[in-house]
Write a structure and sequence with these properties.
Layout: E1 4-7, H1 17-32, E2 36-39, H2 51-64, H3 87-99, E3 103-106, E4 109-112, E5 122-124, E6 128-130, E7 148-151, H4 159-169, E8 174-178, H5 185-195, E9 201-205, E10 208-209, H6 225-231, H7 235-243, H8 263-269, E11 280-281, H9 284-297, H10 300-313, H11 323-332, H12 340-346, H13 348-351, H14 354-359, H15 367-381, H16 388-402, H17 406-418, H18 426-433, H19 435-444
Parallel strand pairs: 1-2, 8-9, 10-11
Antiparallel strand pairs: 3-4, 4-7, 5-6
The structure holds one RNA strand of 76 nucleotides.
Length: 451
RNA sequence: GGUCCCAUCGACUAGUGGUCCAGGUCGUAGCCCUCUCAAGGCUAAAACGCGGGUUCGAACCCCGCUGGGACCGCCA
């Protein structure tokens, strides 16, 4: 049987990290089993649901690369995919229960009667056997058995009811959702039983916590996936990071755990049986590491496309250079930079001299050193073959002859060219910038006379 | 308060009774490379929450405790 899973967000906010995590695992399972991934919008909360949020959630999912096979925007054989458009189904089925005496009317609402002692245990795919009965469904204050509202007075179905109707009629085979829904499952099982339907498999996922081990919320900083995009994380990185929360891809042939992988690789490795049960803490350091690894592996051309927007955002004249040069610059940067934004910031000096001027002035150079620097730089600029090897050889020879320290000279060159105390090898940087540009920067700092 | 869930280094995790004086990764510390590094290489510190069982043998099984968490809404 083809597996059918769904992600069912309510459009009351942007796609949250926790929601993305759930969507991701559903997607993984669908792709792993070559089944279908369905997007269903749970917009029965009339107060808080909006069309804008629905779109934001969908674009957040697309950004993460979680394409769905059926959904409100693309249809499918089991639609409609918005709960607000399925009202008649909810009503008809609730009426059936009323006719059978299993539910009753309470004003405009329809309420399911909960009988005591009903066996509601189930085998969760990740948590295992969960033993419980309807006796656990009690009211917080009174402690009485609590009936379940099916249809609210405004005609909308409640979550626990709609989810059962939808999952049944959409022929969902696996309900993969957050662990916070474990306690809702018995209620839903009660309804499956009342209708005489076979329930799907349930696979609950561990929660994602903040550093303080509390459920991830606004207090922990960025929570929507878009905030991560704007911070310069690639979708592949966020995907990879999220996939490692509550799941491990196992070990490779060398016994090392598989931590860095692509979407497709993850889909291949994914197993519901490897999902863990313990709530996982969101660790920004690990995200940064994963991000850096993906950034590193990127093809130079793709990487350039990724970095350009951040350079432009910083007001740098990107269009003044050709792509080959800029791509070379990023290649020179090697594995530096954890996010696209950071890499762009670390490499702005290839695009323009302007930011360098703002970062460094030569004020702290002593007169003695300055005198030596002038000689040194003139020697460099007169090197006939402008290559990193030749420049370095030239520099070493000069420094040795003068009994000077390479460090003083190379670092000053670094500051003058990049305005930073760290960069790739400074002779490589010099080669790439080109003789004219190097001269221009050295002239600015008055290390060499203006031509 | 009731019901349910969870418990391995600071973090993510591997581990399903012996091959574990517990492995990998991030982070941290140190060393190396060196013109610098936030790049690269190497090393180190760092965990089975506690107490009882079961067993020849327990991180793995059982019970209790402690500590976290979720749910108990005409929100989802």
């Amino acid at each position: 049987m083809e597996t059918r899973v769904r992600f069912a967000p309510s459009p009351t906010g942007a796609l949250h990290i926790g929601g993305g995590h759930t969507a991701l695992f559903n997607w993984l399972w669908a792709r792993h089993t070559k089944g279908k991934f369905i997007l269903r919008i749970e917009d029965t909360d009339r107060e808080r649901s909006t069309q804008e949020y629905e779109e934001t959630i969908m674009s957040g999912m697309r950004w993460l690369g979680l394409e769905w096979d059926e959904g409100p925007d693309r249809g499918g054989a089991f639609g409609p995919y918005r709960q607000s458009e399925r009202l008649s189904m909810y009503r008809e089925n609730a009426e059936k229960l009323v006719a059978e005496g299993k539910a009753y009317r309470d004003g405009e609402a329809i309420v399911f009667r909960v009988l005591p002692g009903v066996e509601l245990s189930f085998d969760d795919v990740v948590y295992g056997r969960i033993e419980t009965t309807s006796d656990g469904l009690r009211d917080r204050e009174s402690g009485d058995l609590k009936d379940i509202v099916l249809i609210k007075s405004d005609g909308m179905p409640t979550y626990n009811y709609a989810v059962v109707i939808d999952d049944h009629f959409m022929e969902i085979t696996h309900v993969i959702r957050g662990e916070d829904h474990i306690s809702n499952t018995p209620k839903q099982l009660l309804l499956y039983g009342a209708f005489g339907w076979a329930p799907p498999f349930f696979a609950h996922l561990p929660m994602i916590l903040g550093r303080d081990k509390k459920k991830l919320s606004k207090r922990h900083g960025a929570t929507s996936v878009y905030e991560y995009r704007d911070m310069g994380y690639m979708p592949d990185s966020v995907f990879n990071f999220l996939a490692n929360l509550g799941w491990s891809a196992g070990e490779d042939a060398n016994g090392a755990s598989r931590e860095i992988f692509t979407r497709d690789e993850a889909a291949g490795f994914f197993e519901l049986s490897r999902v863990t049960r313990k709530a996982a803490v969101f660790d920004p350091d690990k995200l940064n590491y994963i991000s850096q690894e993906h950034l590193k592996r990127l093809d130079p051309v793709v990487r350039l496309d990724l970095i350009k927007p951040f350079w432009r955002e910083a007001g740098l004249p990107v269009e003044r250079h050709d792509n080959a040069y800029l791509a070379d610059a990023l290649t020179l940067m090697g594995g530096r930079g954890q996010t696209a934004r950071e890499l762009a910031g670390f490499s702005d000096y290839y695009v323009s001299f302007e930011p360098v001027k703002g970062r460094w002035n030569a004020d702290e150079i002593s007169d003695e050193l300055r005198a030596g620097l002038k000689e040194f730089f003139s020697a460099l600029l007169s090197e006939p073959e402008w290559s990193a090897e030749k420049l370095e050889a030239r520099a070493r020879a000069w420094v040795e002859a003068k009994g000077a320290k390479m460090k003083d000279y190379a670092m000053t060159l670094r500051f003058a060219l990049t305005g930073m105390k760290v960069s790739p090898g400074i002779f490589e940087v010099s080669e790439l910038l080109g003789r004219d540009e190097v001269r221009r920067r050295l002239e600015f700092y008055e290390f060499v006379p203006r031509l």
